[in-house]
Design goal:
Elements lengths: L18 H8 L12 H24 L2 H17 L1 H5 L4 H13 L19 H11 L3 H13 L3 H7 L4 H18 L6 H12 L9 H36 L30 H10 L14
Helix pairs in contact: 1-2, 2-3, 2-5, 3-5, 3-11, 6-9, 7-9, 8-9
Protein backbone atom coordinates (compact mmCIF):
# COMPACT_ATOMS: atom_id res chain seq x y z
CA UNK A 1 0.00 0.00 0.00
CA UNK A 2 1.09 3.55 -0.63
CA UNK A 3 1.28 5.53 2.56
CA UNK A 4 0.46 9.18 2.00
CA UNK A 5 0.70 10.11 5.67
CA UNK A 6 3.26 9.41 8.31
CA UNK A 7 1.26 6.82 10.31
CA UNK A 8 -1.97 5.42 8.82
CA UNK A 9 -4.03 4.35 11.83
CA UNK A 10 -1.06 2.88 13.73
CA UNK A 11 -1.20 -0.16 15.95
CA UNK A 12 -0.79 0.17 19.67
CA UNK A 13 2.38 -1.07 21.37
CA UNK A 14 0.83 -4.36 22.43
CA UNK A 15 -0.48 -4.98 18.90
CA UNK A 16 2.88 -4.68 17.12
CA UNK A 17 4.41 -7.91 15.90
CA UNK A 18 7.51 -9.26 14.27
CA UNK A 19 8.76 -8.37 10.81
CA UNK A 20 7.56 -11.71 9.48
CA UNK A 21 3.99 -10.71 10.27
CA UNK A 22 4.46 -7.24 8.88
CA UNK A 23 5.80 -8.61 5.62
CA UNK A 24 2.36 -10.04 4.78
CA UNK A 25 1.05 -6.59 3.98
CA UNK A 26 4.14 -4.46 3.54
CA UNK A 27 5.06 -6.10 0.25
CA UNK A 28 8.46 -7.33 1.54
CA UNK A 29 8.00 -10.96 2.54
CA UNK A 30 10.76 -12.56 4.54
CA UNK A 31 12.98 -14.83 2.51
CA UNK A 32 13.82 -17.29 5.26
CA UNK A 33 11.06 -19.66 6.29
CA UNK A 34 8.42 -18.04 4.09
CA UNK A 35 7.49 -21.34 2.50
CA UNK A 36 7.49 -23.32 5.75
CA UNK A 37 4.35 -21.70 7.19
CA UNK A 38 1.25 -23.84 7.37
CA UNK A 39 -2.05 -22.29 6.24
CA UNK A 40 -3.11 -21.84 9.87
CA UNK A 41 0.17 -20.14 10.78
CA UNK A 42 -0.02 -17.82 7.77
CA UNK A 43 -3.62 -16.94 8.62
CA UNK A 44 -2.71 -16.28 12.27
CA UNK A 45 0.14 -14.01 11.19
CA UNK A 46 -2.15 -12.04 8.87
CA UNK A 47 -4.76 -11.78 11.61
CA UNK A 48 -2.25 -10.61 14.19
CA UNK A 49 -0.92 -7.96 11.83
CA UNK A 50 -4.23 -6.61 10.48
CA UNK A 51 -7.05 -7.26 12.95
CA UNK A 52 -6.36 -4.56 15.60
CA UNK A 53 -6.04 -1.78 13.01
CA UNK A 54 -9.06 -3.06 11.07
CA UNK A 55 -11.22 -2.95 14.19
CA UNK A 56 -10.24 0.69 14.68
CA UNK A 57 -11.04 1.49 11.06
CA UNK A 58 -14.40 -0.31 11.30
CA UNK A 59 -15.13 1.72 14.42
CA UNK A 60 -14.65 4.89 12.38
CA UNK A 61 -17.13 3.57 9.83
CA UNK A 62 -19.81 2.39 12.27
CA UNK A 63 -19.33 4.23 15.55
CA UNK A 64 -19.99 0.98 17.45
CA UNK A 65 -17.27 -1.16 19.03
CA UNK A 66 -19.26 -4.41 19.01
CA UNK A 67 -20.26 -4.00 15.38
CA UNK A 68 -16.66 -3.17 14.42
CA UNK A 69 -15.33 -6.32 16.12
CA UNK A 70 -18.08 -8.47 14.56
CA UNK A 71 -17.34 -7.09 11.07
CA UNK A 72 -13.62 -7.82 11.35
CA UNK A 73 -14.20 -11.33 12.72
CA UNK A 74 -16.69 -12.07 9.94
CA UNK A 75 -14.21 -10.84 7.34
CA UNK A 76 -11.48 -13.12 8.68
CA UNK A 77 -13.90 -16.05 8.84
CA UNK A 78 -14.63 -15.53 5.14
CA UNK A 79 -10.89 -15.21 4.49
CA UNK A 80 -10.24 -18.56 6.19
CA UNK A 81 -13.01 -20.21 4.18
CA UNK A 82 -11.37 -18.89 0.98
CA UNK A 83 -7.81 -19.09 2.20
CA UNK A 84 -6.23 -20.40 -1.03
CA UNK A 85 -7.68 -17.39 -2.86
CA UNK A 86 -6.66 -14.93 -0.15
CA UNK A 87 -3.17 -16.39 0.31
CA UNK A 88 -2.38 -15.97 -3.41
CA UNK A 89 -3.88 -12.48 -3.63
CA UNK A 90 -1.49 -9.63 -4.36
CA UNK A 91 -2.63 -7.87 -1.17
CA UNK A 92 -4.18 -10.24 1.41
CA UNK A 93 -4.54 -7.40 3.91
CA UNK A 94 -6.43 -5.35 1.32
CA UNK A 95 -8.72 -8.31 0.59
CA UNK A 96 -9.62 -8.64 4.27
CA UNK A 97 -9.96 -4.86 4.69
CA UNK A 98 -12.40 -4.57 1.78
CA UNK A 99 -14.46 -7.47 3.16
CA UNK A 100 -14.46 -6.00 6.67
CA UNK A 101 -15.66 -2.64 5.31
CA UNK A 102 -18.46 -4.37 3.40
CA UNK A 103 -19.55 -6.22 6.53
CA UNK A 104 -19.37 -3.08 8.67
CA UNK A 105 -21.42 -0.98 6.23
CA UNK A 106 -23.98 -3.68 5.43
CA UNK A 107 -27.48 -2.10 5.29
CA UNK A 108 -28.93 -5.01 7.28
CA UNK A 109 -27.40 -3.58 10.46
CA UNK A 110 -29.93 -0.76 10.47
CA UNK A 111 -32.69 -3.24 11.36
CA UNK A 112 -30.98 -4.06 14.69
CA UNK A 113 -32.06 -1.44 17.25
CA UNK A 114 -28.78 -1.49 19.21
CA UNK A 115 -26.82 -0.59 16.05
CA UNK A 116 -28.67 2.71 15.69
CA UNK A 117 -27.01 4.28 18.75
CA UNK A 118 -23.22 4.78 18.49
CA UNK A 119 -20.68 4.27 21.27
CA UNK A 120 -19.39 7.81 21.84
CA UNK A 121 -15.73 8.34 22.74
CA UNK A 122 -14.98 10.09 26.05
CA UNK A 123 -13.44 13.21 24.50
CA UNK A 124 -15.98 15.87 23.35
CA UNK A 125 -13.89 16.76 20.30
CA UNK A 126 -13.78 13.10 19.25
CA UNK A 127 -17.53 12.83 19.76
CA UNK A 128 -18.06 15.79 17.44
CA UNK A 129 -15.87 14.17 14.77
CA UNK A 130 -17.72 10.86 15.16
CA UNK A 131 -21.08 12.57 14.68
CA UNK A 132 -19.76 14.34 11.58
CA UNK A 133 -18.52 11.04 10.14
CA UNK A 134 -21.76 9.18 10.82
CA UNK A 135 -23.75 11.89 9.04
CA UNK A 136 -21.85 11.16 5.81
CA UNK A 137 -23.24 8.66 3.28
CA UNK A 138 -21.54 5.27 3.69
CA UNK A 139 -19.64 5.54 0.40
CA UNK A 140 -18.30 9.00 1.33
CA UNK A 141 -17.38 7.80 4.82
CA UNK A 142 -15.51 4.80 3.43
CA UNK A 143 -13.61 6.93 0.93
CA UNK A 144 -12.61 9.42 3.62
CA UNK A 145 -11.41 6.72 6.02
CA UNK A 146 -9.39 4.94 3.31
CA UNK A 147 -7.76 8.10 1.95
CA UNK A 148 -7.33 10.34 4.97
CA UNK A 149 -7.28 7.65 7.65
CA UNK A 150 -5.58 4.56 6.24
CA UNK A 151 -3.44 6.62 3.85
CA UNK A 152 -4.25 5.05 0.48
CA UNK A 153 -3.72 7.24 -2.54
CA UNK A 154 -6.62 8.19 -4.78
CA UNK A 155 -6.32 5.36 -7.39
CA UNK A 156 -6.05 2.75 -4.63
CA UNK A 157 -9.04 4.24 -2.84
CA UNK A 158 -11.04 4.21 -6.05
CA UNK A 159 -10.10 0.59 -6.74
CA UNK A 160 -11.05 -0.57 -3.26
CA UNK A 161 -14.39 1.26 -3.30
CA UNK A 162 -15.09 -0.03 -6.85
CA UNK A 163 -15.43 3.48 -8.24
CA UNK A 164 -13.66 5.48 -10.90
CA UNK A 165 -10.89 7.80 -9.81
CA UNK A 166 -12.94 10.97 -10.58
CA UNK A 167 -15.88 9.55 -8.60
CA UNK A 168 -13.63 8.77 -5.64
CA UNK A 169 -12.12 12.26 -5.81
CA UNK A 170 -15.60 13.79 -5.86
CA UNK A 171 -16.67 11.73 -2.84
CA UNK A 172 -13.52 12.68 -0.97
CA UNK A 173 -13.99 16.39 -1.71
CA UNK A 174 -17.61 16.41 -0.55
CA UNK A 175 -16.79 14.36 2.56
CA UNK A 176 -14.03 16.78 3.54
CA UNK A 177 -16.35 19.74 2.96
CA UNK A 178 -19.08 18.17 5.11
CA UNK A 179 -16.67 17.48 7.96
CA UNK A 180 -15.12 20.95 7.70
CA UNK A 181 -18.59 22.51 7.80
CA UNK A 182 -19.15 20.90 11.22
CA UNK A 183 -15.55 21.22 12.46
CA UNK A 184 -13.72 24.08 10.68
CA UNK A 185 -10.43 23.19 12.33
CA UNK A 186 -10.38 19.93 10.33
CA UNK A 187 -10.27 21.65 6.95
CA UNK A 188 -6.55 20.77 6.83
CA UNK A 189 -6.17 17.13 5.60
CA UNK A 190 -3.17 16.57 7.85
CA UNK A 191 -5.12 17.63 10.93
CA UNK A 192 -8.07 15.53 9.81
CA UNK A 193 -5.77 12.51 9.50
CA UNK A 194 -4.40 13.09 12.99
CA UNK A 195 -7.87 13.33 14.48
CA UNK A 196 -9.05 10.21 12.64
CA UNK A 197 -6.08 8.31 14.05
CA UNK A 198 -6.89 9.53 17.56
CA UNK A 199 -10.57 8.65 17.23
CA UNK A 200 -9.75 5.21 15.84
CA UNK A 201 -7.29 4.52 18.63
CA UNK A 202 -10.05 4.50 21.26
CA UNK A 203 -9.26 1.90 23.91
CA UNK A 204 -11.21 -1.31 24.34
CA UNK A 205 -11.42 -2.29 20.68
CA UNK A 206 -9.69 -5.68 20.91
CA UNK A 207 -10.91 -8.53 18.74
CA UNK A 208 -11.02 -12.27 19.36
CA UNK A 209 -7.97 -14.44 18.81
CA UNK A 210 -7.17 -16.04 15.45
CA UNK A 211 -7.82 -19.57 16.75
CA UNK A 212 -11.33 -18.61 17.84
CA UNK A 213 -11.98 -16.96 14.49
CA UNK A 214 -10.77 -20.00 12.54
CA UNK A 215 -12.90 -22.29 14.72
CA UNK A 216 -15.96 -20.11 14.22
CA UNK A 217 -15.35 -20.03 10.48
CA UNK A 218 -15.04 -23.81 10.29
CA UNK A 219 -18.18 -24.21 12.40
CA UNK A 220 -20.00 -21.82 10.10
CA UNK A 221 -18.86 -23.75 7.04
CA UNK A 222 -20.04 -27.05 8.54
CA UNK A 223 -23.40 -25.51 9.41
CA UNK A 224 -24.05 -24.24 5.89
CA UNK A 225 -22.80 -27.49 4.35
CA UNK A 226 -25.16 -29.54 6.51
CA UNK A 227 -28.00 -27.13 5.79
CA UNK A 228 -27.39 -27.48 2.04
CA UNK A 229 -27.33 -31.27 2.34
CA UNK A 230 -30.53 -31.29 4.42
CA UNK A 231 -32.26 -29.01 1.93
CA UNK A 232 -31.18 -31.22 -0.98
CA UNK A 233 -32.41 -34.35 0.79
CA UNK A 234 -35.73 -32.65 1.53
CA UNK A 235 -36.19 -31.66 -2.10
CA UNK A 236 -35.30 -35.16 -3.32
CA UNK A 237 -37.67 -36.75 -0.78
CA UNK A 238 -40.51 -34.44 -1.71
CA UNK A 239 -39.94 -35.16 -5.39
CA UNK A 240 -39.90 -38.92 -4.80
CA UNK A 241 -43.11 -38.74 -2.71
CA UNK A 242 -44.81 -36.71 -5.42
CA UNK A 243 -43.84 -39.23 -8.09
CA UNK A 244 -45.02 -42.10 -5.88
CA UNK A 245 -48.43 -40.64 -5.07
CA UNK A 246 -49.21 -38.82 -8.30
CA UNK A 247 -51.87 -40.43 -10.59
CA UNK A 248 -50.49 -42.40 -13.52
CA UNK A 249 -53.36 -41.69 -15.92
CA UNK A 250 -55.78 -38.93 -16.64
CA UNK A 251 -59.04 -38.94 -14.67
CA UNK A 252 -61.93 -37.29 -16.49
CA UNK A 253 -63.68 -34.74 -14.33
CA UNK A 254 -67.21 -35.51 -13.18
CA UNK A 255 -69.66 -33.60 -15.31
CA UNK A 256 -72.16 -31.37 -13.53
CA UNK A 257 -75.69 -32.70 -13.00
CA UNK A 258 -78.53 -31.96 -15.40
CA UNK A 259 -82.23 -31.78 -14.84
CA UNK A 260 -84.19 -34.87 -16.02
CA UNK A 261 -86.47 -33.91 -18.89
CA UNK A 262 -89.87 -35.38 -19.78
CA UNK A 263 -90.97 -36.46 -16.29
CA UNK A 264 -94.03 -34.81 -14.83
CA UNK A 265 -93.69 -33.56 -11.32
CA UNK A 266 -97.41 -33.76 -10.66
CA UNK A 267 -98.28 -36.12 -7.84
CA UNK A 268 -94.73 -36.71 -6.74
CA UNK A 269 -95.35 -34.97 -3.47
CA UNK A 270 -99.00 -35.90 -3.13
CA UNK A 271 -100.65 -38.73 -1.07
CA UNK A 272 -99.67 -42.37 -1.69
CA UNK A 273 -101.84 -44.25 -4.22
CA UNK A 274 -104.08 -47.17 -3.11
CA UNK A 275 -102.11 -50.31 -2.30
CA UNK A 276 -98.88 -48.41 -1.54
CA UNK A 277 -99.39 -48.75 2.20
CA UNK A 278 -99.60 -52.58 1.93
CA UNK A 279 -96.43 -52.62 -0.23
CA UNK A 280 -94.56 -50.45 2.20
CA UNK A 281 -95.54 -52.63 5.16
CA UNK A 282 -94.46 -55.77 3.26
CA UNK A 283 -91.07 -54.26 2.40
CA UNK A 284 -90.45 -53.27 5.99
CA UNK A 285 -90.95 -56.88 7.10
CA UNK A 286 -88.21 -58.11 4.75
CA UNK A 287 -84.48 -58.02 5.55
CA UNK A 288 -82.73 -54.66 5.20
CA UNK A 289 -79.98 -56.10 3.01
CA UNK A 290 -79.03 -59.24 1.14
CA UNK A 291 -79.86 -60.97 -2.09
CA UNK A 292 -83.48 -61.42 -0.99
CA UNK A 293 -83.97 -57.73 -1.64
CA UNK A 294 -82.71 -58.17 -5.18
CA UNK A 295 -83.86 -61.64 -6.35
CA UNK A 296 -87.64 -62.14 -6.54
CA UNK A 297 -89.13 -65.24 -4.92
CA UNK A 298 -90.70 -67.83 -7.17
CA UNK A 299 -94.50 -68.18 -7.01
Amino acid sequence: MTSRHAKPLPLSAEDRHSGASASLTSGHPAEEGAGSLTPAQAFDALYAFCAPALVRQAYLLTGRRERARAAVEEAFQLAWQRWPEVAHDRDPAGWVRATAYECALSPWHRFVPRNRVPDPPPDPADRALQQALLRLPPSYRRTLVLHDGVGLDLPETAAETEASTPAAANRLMHAREAVAACLPELADPAELHRRLVRLGATEGLGAAGPTAVRTAGERRTRFWTRSAIAFTVTVVGATALTLRTAPTHHLAPVSPGHAVQGVSSQGLLGPLPPGAFELRAKLRKEQAAGPERLVPKAG
